Every structure is written in C-alpha cells, then in structure tokens.
C-alpha cells in the first residue's frame, strides 16, 4: 500500500495566498454587487514593456523558421541571457560574478523552494519572522523543521529572527548558529531594507560560522536609496557564503511569463564539494530550461530601451507605494516600508488580529490585502498592502480606507 509523504501532512492549512484568494472569492460570491480592489498578492498589473513584447514577437518568428528553430534550451540557460545578467546586475555594480555562475530558471519562487534540496536534511535553517512563506513551507516538505507548536505558531527546529517595529524590522544575528540563513531585501512582507554595512555583518557572520545565506533579491529594482545594496555580492566575502536569487517578475512584470535566475558562486564550498556542482546536477536532472522565447524576452530587459521602459514601470508602482503610505498614515494607521520596496506594512488598529482586519477591510472598504500573521507569528497585528495595482485602483482603495 502506498503512503503519502508524511512531511507534507505537517504543513499548516493551505498556502497563504491561496487562502486569501479563497476568502476573496467567497466574499465576491456572497456580494456580487461589490467591486473588490485587490492589493493582496504582489502580482503586477501593467502590461509588458514594448521592448519585451518586440523581443517576444521576434523569438516567436524564429521558432517558425527551421533555420532558427530551437528545441531544448541549454540546462543552465542561454549564454546571451547569462552574459546580460552578469554584465548588468553584477559587473556594473562592481560584483565579481561570471555568467557560468548564473543558472536561468522559470522563476524565483521555484528556486527559493528548490534550493534547500542541495543541503543535508539535518541542516538548521534560520528565517526572519514574518517571512515569505515559501522558505519555511518547502523546508517543512523536506522534513527539516521538527514539530509545530500550535500555541506560539513556531516550528521546533527552525531559528526565527523576529522583525518588528521595535527592531526596525531588522533581524539580529542569531545566537544559535544556523546552517542556512534566508534573507530577503528589500523585504517581503515588511518593505524594510538593509544597509551595506549591516549586510556585511551578515556575510562576516556566515563566513565565520560556516553558514550559507540564501539571499532573495526579487525586489532590488525598487531600491532608490544609493546606500542600499542591490546584491549581496556588493559585500566583501559573499562569494564564499551566499547564493542569490533573482526574479524577473517584479522588475519586468514577468509574473505570468516566468523567468528568474540563481547565482551559485564557485567559491561556495562544503568541504571540497562545490554547491555550484550540486545545483548544476539538480538543474540538469530535474529541469529542461526556461523557454527560448522567454529567455529572449529576459534579454530585452537589459537592452537600453528595455531598461528605460522598466525604470518608468517601477516608478509607476512606486507612485502607488507613496500614495498608499501617505494615505494610510492620513487615515490614522502606523505604516512602514513603501520607500525602497513595493510593499506597505501597516499596524492593524486597536491591536485587531490580522485576519479580523482582513475581514473588516474586505467588508467595509472592499479592499483585499494580506494578513501579516500569514507570514509568521511576529506578523500578527500587521497587514500588508501591495503597490502592484493600477494607479486608479490604488487611489480608489485609499479613498475607501479613509472613508471606513
Ligand atoms: C507576494 O505577494 O508575496 C509575492 O507575490 C509572492 C510571490 O512572488 O510568489
């Protein structure tokens, strides 16, 4: 008789954004006359930039011609895209990352979830609390997190690094040394950012203690403060302790197109084992590469036209962020983030639980957000709004929140 994987049975409820979507649908069915504004999941709303559309059309035409048709993509990605990423995301910022250390994939979420496979099962992970749920849930699936405590909402074998307004949403270096540390800056969900000096402390800590940092840089395009690093490789010594994950979803609107990449430097070793070799082996065995058409679209992100158009797109979303931050503060809420990040992290009123506030906002303002407690126990009494809506809807959502 077959048995289901018991580690999956330990997962708590359904994935956060599936729960939010289900509750939204239930409300919509019960109130068909209400028009909901969705500022919940960080899904983009603006169309792909013209330079990307042009590259897509061109690549589609190539697939129609026997001379230029492409079958399987190279395991690790086409060199045109890896070279463009190495040049623009690293060399231009003074970081020493070569194209063959970049692994192209169909998105950062998959990489965030899969990367844990190259670490031993008894590795101890450390996560911020609140945190993007994928880091924890995929380690639960891998049987690495121990038992769940219903009272405090924590896994017994995970090191939590609380991030609240009391510590400026900045994790402290853990006293118990983790094997694998997940960091995401600009942060999802708090919208907080880290200075280069603080990030250097993490790199030094990881190198000193033999930990590895999984650095999720999905929101780096939203950084405007020059003191905030775009990549962990801007820090001295990061090549021996850090893996970095990039997304094309938030900087270029690829949430439905799917493209990302992960950097595994060849200096990152466990004894004499290169993590680069393990990730390459995994990629080769389990993955047949992101589609050629999509990788050409990714290349256009780095063209002069593409860069210009995407700068405007990011500015569009950051105008929403400014509108939300100002608006919710005027409405009397305490709010954070939204300056170098597309997320606004607000305190719920009167210590209301995050899910109670979700229901209140849905019912009174017909606005859908994301409850902070869904990101971890330290997210309780907080609530996340995203800047990825249209400007018109963002303005209307704020008007409605003010009128509540
Ligand atoms: C979010 O809303 O936190 C993100 O959109 C989720 C994701 O990128 O997978």
Number of helices: 13
The CATH homologous superfamily of the largest domain is named: Type I PLP-dependent aspartate aminotransferase-like (Major domain)
How many structural units, i.e. domains? Answer: 2
Taken from the alpha-carbon principal axes, the silhouette is globular
| Average pLDDT for all residues | 97
The largest β sheet comes out as:
7 strands, mixed
Q: What Rg, in angstroms, do the CA atoms define?
A: 21 Å
Elements, N to C (H/E): HHEHHEHEHEEEEHEEHEEEHHHEEHEEEH
Your description of this structure?
The chain contains 13 helices and 17 strands. It is of the alpha/beta class and 404 residues long. The protein folds into 2 domains: 8-47 and 305-402, Alpha-Beta Complex (Aspartate Aminotransferase, domain 1); 53-303, Aspartate Aminotransferase, domain 2 (3-Layer(aba) Sandwich), CATH 3.40.640. Helix 3 (50-63) packs antiparallel against helix 10 (292-301), helix 5 (108-114) packs across helix 6 (133-141) and helix 11 runs parallel beside helix 13. The longest helix has 27 residues, at 304-330. It is globular. The N and C termini lie far apart (56 Å). The model has no long low-confidence stretch (mean pLDDT 97).
Describe this structure in a few short sentences.
The chain has 13 helices and 17 strands.
């Amino acid at each position: 008789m077959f048995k289901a994987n018991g580690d999956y049975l330990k997962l708590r409820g359904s994935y956060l954004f599936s729960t939010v979507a289900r509750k939204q649908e239930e409300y919509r069915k019960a109130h068909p006359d209400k028009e909901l504004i969705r500022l919940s999941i960080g899904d983009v709303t603006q169309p792909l930039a013209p330079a990307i559309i042009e590259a897509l059309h061109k690549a589609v035409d190539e697939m129609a011609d026997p001379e230029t048709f492409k079958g399987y993509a190279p395991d690790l990605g086409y060199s045109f895209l890896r070279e463009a990423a190495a040049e623009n995301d690293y060399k231009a910022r003074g970081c020493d990352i070569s194209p063959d250390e970049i692994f192209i994939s169909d998105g950062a979420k998959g990489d965030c979830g899969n990367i844990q496979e190259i670490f031993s099962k008894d590795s101890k992970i450390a996560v911020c609390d609140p945190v993007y749920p994928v880091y924890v849930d995929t380690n639960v699936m891998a049987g690495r997190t121990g038992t769940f405590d219903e009272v405090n909402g924590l896994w017994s074998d995970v090191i939590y690094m609380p991030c609240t307004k009391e510590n400026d949403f900045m994790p402290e270096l853990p006293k118990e040394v983790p094997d694998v540390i997940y960091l995401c800056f600009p942060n999802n969900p708090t919208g907080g950012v880290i200075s280069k000096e603080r990030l250097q402390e993490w790199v030094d800590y990881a190198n000193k203690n033999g930990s590895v940092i999984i650095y999720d840089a999905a929101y780096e395009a939203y950084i405007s403060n020059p003191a905030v690093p775009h990549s962990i490789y801007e820090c001295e010594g990061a090549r021996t302790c850090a893996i970095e994950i990039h997304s094309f979803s938030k900087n270029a609107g690829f949430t439905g197109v799917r493209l990302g990449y992960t950097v595994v430097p060849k200096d990152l070793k466990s004894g004499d084992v290169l993590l680069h070799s393990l990730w390459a082996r995994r990629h080769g065995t389990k993955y047949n590469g992101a589609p050629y058409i999509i990788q050409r679209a990714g290349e256009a992100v780095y063209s002069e036209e593409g860069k210009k158009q995407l700068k405007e797109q990011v500015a569009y979303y950051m105008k929403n962020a400014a509108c939300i931050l100002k608006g919710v503060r005027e409405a009397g809420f305490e709010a954070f983030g939204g300056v170098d990040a597309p997320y606004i992290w607000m305190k719920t009123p009167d210590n209301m639980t995050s899910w109670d506030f979700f229901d209140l906002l849905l019912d009174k303002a017909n606005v859908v957000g994301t409850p902070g407690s869904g990101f971890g126990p330290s997210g309780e009494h907080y609530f996340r709004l995203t800047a990825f809506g249209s400007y018109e809807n963002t303005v209307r959502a704020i008007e409605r929140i003010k009128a509540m």
